[in-house]
Automatic annotation (TrEMBL):
Domain Gfo/Idh/MocA-like oxidoreductase N-terminal intervals: 7-119
Domain of life: Bacteria
Entries under SUPFAM superfamilies matching the protein: Glyceraldehyde-3-phosphate dehydrogenase-like, C-terminal domain, NAD(P)-binding Rossmann-fold domains
Name of this protein: Oxidoreductase family, NAD-binding Rossmann fold
Single GO MF descriptor: nucleotide binding
Organism field: Thermoleophilum album
Xref: InterPro entries: Gfo/Idh/MocA-like_OxRdtase_N, Gfo/Idh/MocA_Oxidoreductases, NAD(P)-bd_dom_sf
């Protein structure tokens, strides 16, 4: 893949995320050429192709024969199979999150990538890593002592995701952000969750975390609220920082001071400064794909690789076990009552 030749890319899966990947690739003509899309639903694949100028492939193998790199945006249960097949055909891969439905399955991707040698590139699509607001937040809290983090990721019900619970579907985004901000090993993780609209999978979950340096965190994820909320709040030793993912805004409340009120020496007035931080108007998905393409061109490791994807899944499984234990305890108390 030498010289300035554009990277030939394909998209596997023409659903909601696949359509966005195709659109984003088409917006990066200086880096790549969107060659092909594949989806078992041919009508859906043709619709994406018509909007982007891509060729519709009847099979995954046909697509892999035409491209240098591929986005895997198929259903989560197929991520491992499709990623391994792409690696075996010599393609570099960006696989949407989750990397797999479990750690054991994710290890199969790790093994397949290792078999291809150190130059094989697999990036996991933890898109918030490339959110310009999150990037600015990392700079702002870079050298401050972190006290606590609170994250909310709430969505109305839409029923599209049927193979994952809310911890793996939504909370996984914030687990990745949390682990990327934390500076010490995770020593505690627990969750409670409940099903609301799903037959057997959790739709609303709350999790707590503690790290070896004292940092604590609380995450809430839901797919049954009536409002879409994406917020992160960071308490540091001298400030309180709030990030709104939807609005892509950051506000910093600096440490307050108490000053005496000259009109009454017995009282004090509390003062603080609120600073609004400029966030570059960059689409996270476009930034993510551009980073992937640059890794492919330069043959360097991606910012979010297999190891990071597996680490996040390890935390997901830890929370899922904790949530199941909490439900069992509640059921046991109910039976004993």
């Amino acid at each position: 893949m030498g010289g300035a030749r554009r990277i030939r890319v394909g998209v596997v899966g023409a659903g909601n995320m696949g359509a966005h990947h195709a659109r984003a690739y088409a917006s990066l003509p200086h880096l790549c050429e969107l060659v092909a899309v594949h989806d078992p639903n041919s009508m859906r694949a043709r619709a994406v192709a018509a909007r982007t100028g891509a060729f519709v492939c009847a099979s995954l193998d046909e697509l892999l024969d035409r491209v240098d790199a591929v986005s895997i945006a198929s259903p989560s249960a197929l991520h491992v199979e499709h990623t391994v097949r792409a690696l075996e055909r010599g393609c570099d891969v960006l696989v949407e999150k989750p990397l797999a439905l479990g750690v054991a399955q994710a290890r199969l991707v790790e093994q397949a990538a290792a078999a291809c040698g150190p130059r094989a590139i697999v990036q996991v699509g933890h898109i918030e890593h490339f959110n310009p607001a999150v990037r600015e937040l990392r700079k702002l809290v870079g050298d401050r002592a972190l006290v606590a983090l609170e994250m909310q990721r709430l969505s109305p019900w839409d029923g599209r995701i049927g193979d994952s619970d809310v911890i793996q579907d939504l909370m996984l985004h914030d687990i990745h952000v949390l682990l990327s901000l934390a500076r010490a090993p995770l020593v505690h993780a627990a969750a409670v969750a409940r099903s609301v609209r799903s037959a057997s999978r959790a739709d609303h979950a709350v999790a707590t975390f503690a790290f070896a340096d004292g940092l604590i965190a609380a995450l809430c994820a839901s797919r049954v609220t009536e409002e879409k909320v994406r917020r992160l709040a960071v308490t540091t030793d001298d400030s309180y920082v709030t990030l709104d993912y939807v609005r892509r805004t950051i506000e910093i409340c600096r440490s307050t001071s108490l000053r005496s009120d000259r009109r009454d020496s017995r009282t004090y007035r509390q003062e603080s400064i609120v600073e609004r931080v400029f966030v570059p108007p960059e689409e996270p998905l476009v930034a993510q794909l551009a980073s992937f393409l640059e890794c492919v061109r330069e043959r360097r490791s991606p910012e979010v690789g297999i190891a990071e994807g597996i680490r996040c899944l390890e935390v997901v499984e830890r929370l899922q076990r904790s949530a199941r234990a909490a439900i069992a305890a509640v059921d046991g108390e109910a039976l004993a009552a």
